[in-house]
Specification:
By secondary structure, the protein is an all-alpha fold. Helices cover 84% and strands 0% of the residues. It is elongated, with a radius of gyration of 18 Å. The protein starts with a helix and ends with a helix.
Amino acid sequence: MELLLQLLVAGVWTLALVNSLRRLVRLARVSHLQRWDSNIRVRSGLNRIWWWLGREEFWHPARYDIAYALQISLLVFLFVWHMAN
């Protein structure tokens, strides 16, 4: 039972992280690299990601993902605490 609850909390946080990462990559418009030998495209893509990390347009929706993960984690904690008592 404990393992299942730990996996549930880890899964919720993983989904929040993946959702935020997908949003960041979409905002930065980073496409798949066509040529691995081109360091210029890699650098420009990483610069765009770094730039978006400082923008409110990325963090505003990411806050909701983090709040949702915190809410689910708190609900799981309260559920387990109630079952233990």
